């Protein structure tokens, strides 16, 4: 496959505060739920983001590397507790100054910042009050967003309210591998709802300021596919799509929940008394300007057979042979295609999913601008005897996904940017540091030295060769 993307396309990489910043208690930062969890007894593996890739102290070096790598954008997130360290709501000037410096560095290096306000790390005090499950969550989140919009205004051209609300909710309230480590389907549904409301309330604050910036949400659309075309499989596919995607993207883009969602939830025994008409009104009037899509793989589903509702991630790596997946009682469960390759964390490698996803968005939502806000390949890796990291497998992965992306843009999809996950190696939630995604290697044993991998140079050349003049 050949082809180029249109001029002005954003090419970059992505990261998140807890995973790359470090400096967990520096500069007046308050404690987050991830600090609390990683320092507590439930963190059985013992890894923390206390230092991570030390972006907090080395952002200048990292941003310079991005420029040299031909990037024109960077996606990163703001740590809520760096801006508002405690419940008083008092702004931390050192936290604001840190992000102002990062933004300045981006500007001076021709890097457009794409900034996420919530990438999994909420204040520990809020977590102690029930976190996402507490109905006050959406108001607290909107208050924090208002501060960020006021402090940074048009310095940030692309704001993302929330990263992967449902994935976060499934891990936190279904699998229980993320804090607060709960398994409760009723609470899960309420959390997903609260996050939809939180997104809309944040957008309401954004609109009040009449900024020239744009605001979006980042979702991970696993395009839901089936291996058999029967009525039962098609029902499972629709239910999978509701569960995986539509209860985030429909309200964010169309301003309303899918019509079949609430009846199906009630049929499954969920008490929906937390749904409030005033929330639905806020959702209806506060929709996004663009959609961020994290794209790793598709979701293959089949009709429900047995088992309780759960999500089975693979935080073990090569030692775990079962495929990551879902069971949603009465709705659907994960299917497996034995013929496709899987990575060491049992995730299916299926490059065409980016094309299918972009085509699906075009069909369901028309021309809404889309950014692929994450796409990447996890590997166990270390430098060879020459000190080089030859990640040919990652290059193959990125190349194949990008070819499908270019094809989708050439066929009329409004995709405007692409971010490889991740900028440097960083903390992988629960997995720790052996699971690497970066285009830049971090030598954790030698002062966090940065070593651009082969994929970093490959990406630089790919950008040059595949962008229209
Ligand atoms: C996405 C998250 C990222 C990142 C990535 C890889 O879901 O938005 O923060 O972690 O997945 O996930 P993992 O590190 O679990 O492999």
TrEMBL record:
Q: Which domain of life is it from?
A: Bacteria
User: What GO CC terms are in its UniProt record?
Assistant: cytosol
Provide the GO MF annotations for this entry: beta-glucosidase activity
Name one matching Pfam family.
Glyco_hydro_1
* Swiss-Prot/TrEMBL keywords: Glycosidase, Hydrolase
Q: Name one GO biological process term.
A: carbohydrate catabolic process
Record keyword Cell inner membrane present: no
* Keyword Hydrolase annotated: yes
Listed PANTHER family: GLYCOSYL HYDROLASE, LP05116P
So what family is this one in?
Belongs to the glycosyl hydrolase 1 family.
Query: What name is this protein filed under?
Result: Family 1 glycosylhydrolase
What is the organism of origin for this protein?
Holdemania massiliensis
């Amino acid at each position: 496959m050949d082809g180029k993307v249109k001029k002005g396309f954003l090419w970059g990489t992505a990261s998140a505060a807890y995973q790359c910043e470090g400096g967990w208690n520096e500069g007046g930062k308050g404690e987050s739920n991830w600090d609390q969890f990683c320092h507590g007894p439930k963190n059985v593996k013992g890894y923390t983001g206390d230092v991570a890739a030390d972006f907090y102290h080395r952002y200048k070096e990292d941003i310079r590397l991005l420029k040299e790598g031909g990037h024109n954008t960077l996606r990163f997130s703001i740590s809520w507790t760096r801006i508002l360290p405690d419940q008083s709501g008092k702004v931390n000037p050192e936290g604001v100054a840190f992000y102002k410096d990062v933004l300045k560095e981006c500007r001076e290096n021709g890097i457009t910042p794409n900034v996420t306000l919530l990438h999994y790390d909420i204040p520990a005090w809020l977590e102690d009050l029930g976190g996402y499950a507490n109905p006050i969550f959406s108001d607290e989140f909107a208050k924090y967003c208002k501060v960020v919009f006021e402090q940074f205004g048009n310095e940030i051209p692309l704001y993302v309210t929330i990263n992967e609300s449902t994935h976060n909710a499934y891990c936190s309230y279904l699998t229980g591998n993320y804090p607060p480590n709960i398994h409760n389907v009723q609470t899960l549904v309420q959390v997903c709802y609260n996050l939809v409301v939180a997104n809309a309330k944040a957008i309401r604050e954004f609109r009040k300021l009449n900024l020239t910036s744009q605001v979006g949400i980042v979702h991970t659309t696993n395009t839901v596919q089936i291996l058999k075309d029967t009525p039962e499989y098609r029902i499972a596919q629709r239910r999978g799509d509701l569960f995986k995607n539509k209860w985030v993207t429909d309200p964010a883009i169309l301003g309303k929940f899918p019509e079949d969602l609430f009846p199906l939830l009630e049929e499954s025994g969920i008490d929906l008394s937390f749904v409030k008409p005033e929330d639905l009104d806020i959702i209806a009037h506060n929709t996004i300007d663009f959609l961020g899509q994290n794209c790793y793989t598709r979701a293959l589903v089949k009709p429900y057979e047995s088992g309780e509702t759960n999500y089975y991630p693979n935080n073990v790596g090569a030692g775990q042979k079962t495929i990551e997946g879902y069971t949603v009682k009465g709705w659907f469960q994960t299917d497996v295609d034995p013929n496709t390759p899987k990575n060491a964390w049992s995730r299916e490698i299926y490059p065409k999913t980016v094309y299918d996803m972009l085509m699906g968005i075009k069909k369901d939502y028309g021309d809404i601008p889309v950014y692929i806000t994450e796409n990447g390949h996890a590997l166990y890796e270390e430098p060879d005897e020459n000190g080089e990291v030859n990640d040919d497998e990652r290059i193959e992965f990125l190349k194949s996904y990008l070819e499908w992306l270019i094809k989708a843009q050439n066929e009329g999809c409004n995709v405007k940017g692409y971010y490889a996950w991740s900028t440097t190696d960083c903390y992988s939630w629960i997995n720790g540091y052996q699971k690497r995604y970066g285009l830049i290697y971090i030598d954790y044993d030698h002062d966090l030295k940065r070593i651009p991998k082969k994929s970093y140079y490959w990406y630089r050349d790919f950008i040059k060769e595949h962008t229209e003049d």
